Give the backbone structure.
Amino acid sequence: MQILLLGSGGREHALAWKIAQSPLLEKLFIAPGNAGTSGCGENVPISVNDFPGIKRFVLEQGIDMLVVGPEEPLVKGIHDFFLADPMLRKIPVIGPLARAAQLEGSKDFAKQFMTRHQIPTAAYKTFDVSNIEEGLGFIRSLKPPYVLKADGLAAGKGVVICLTEEEAQREFISMLRDARFGQASASVVVEEFLSGIECSSFVITDGNSYLVLPEAKDYKRIGEGDSGPNTGGMGSVSPVPFADQAFLKKVEDRIIRPTVEGLKKEGLDYTGFIFFGLMNVKGDPFVIEYNCRLGDPETESVIPRIKNDVVVLLNAVAERKLADHTIQIDARVCTTVMLVSKGYPDAYEKGKLITGESKVKGSLVFHAGTVIKQGELVSNGGRVIAVTSLGKSMPEALALTYENAGKIEFEGRYFRRDIGFDL
Ligand code: AMP
Ligand code: GLY
């Protein structure tokens, strides 16, 4: 079969690498992809949000399945677009319809959904410009720190944690009145701060049944010891030692199953991946956020641990036969370190020559922000390359990852040297 994968990050390179291993695959296309994905299939220069362009390509090429990597096209309704078009409606899309993608597209939608299904999450209230005064009062009623979330998609930047009441009130007003995150902060969720350690769970679902994928932990801050501003993610590990059998059972019983059943009860047809951002509060899991896709760089540590043919699983989702399958997981530890551009997550330069990839031995290299220009591999984003290794233990996997990460060079290259430090 021929598959079109949408996206251009490390997550998509990891997915492309896995899809390309399937004997069921005839040809993989990646739109728009990066220099790394071109080793797994053919890149096509179509943006993930160019629905008419995607339609044209799918019909011209005779694509049999669309796999959606990032959230934006899902929230914008790529799956709905396929269903509404008589020429596209038979082609399965891996990724939810827009209404279900609201689990990620609207924090308020997600909170209301969790409330309806008694899924553990922080207490909250949602406000807009019409009830700013009430919001300020709600902030006064909470204890610090304060968590403010822009309701809509804000490229991972819409969550602000404030240490003082004064700062929280200022931030709250700026989000609502000065549209600090544009339309995304037209509504703001104010919620209780949960204290604990984070990890993420992932499932693949056909809307009826689901398979739990390996869990992972990502490292969001730019600086070592989890300091400095948030990034898209600087590294990841899977499995997560504190997520033991007992904890994972709670996650499945209290969060995963009620979520999949809740979606079904509400008629929110869901085919694709669900990402549960979790906080472990003294052994009990709470949902911090839902995403309607896999995480990046979690995928780089999760996918190499999945032993199944992923195309078989994707077909099972399309045919609503996931219940016939079980997941086979590699017991080894997988670790990922992200090499980023100087200046990231603020302004950074692109176009830096990348060398040393051929010296890497025993690790996987997943490209995130790379492109071939005039025959040379150059950086093309803030997060540039992920180096991933499997090992019998976390120290073993990390040692290999770091040995190889050091071999890949570009001007201003930076990576955290303490991934896994807290585990
Ligand atoms: P999100 O974009 O929803 O993943 O939020 C970004 C980060 O903010 C999360 O990874 C958490 O570290 C933090 N965060 C979000 N909500 C809370 C909360 N209620 N309590 C504590 N930390 C939170
Ligand atoms: N690494 C977090 C995310 O993909 O949202």
Observations:
- The pocket of glycine (ligand 2) is lined by residues 218, 233, 291, 295-296, 298 (CB under 6 Å).
- The chain has a mean pLDDT of 96.
- Residues 245-265 form the longest helix (21 residues).
- Residues 32 and 46 are 5 Å apart (CA to CA).
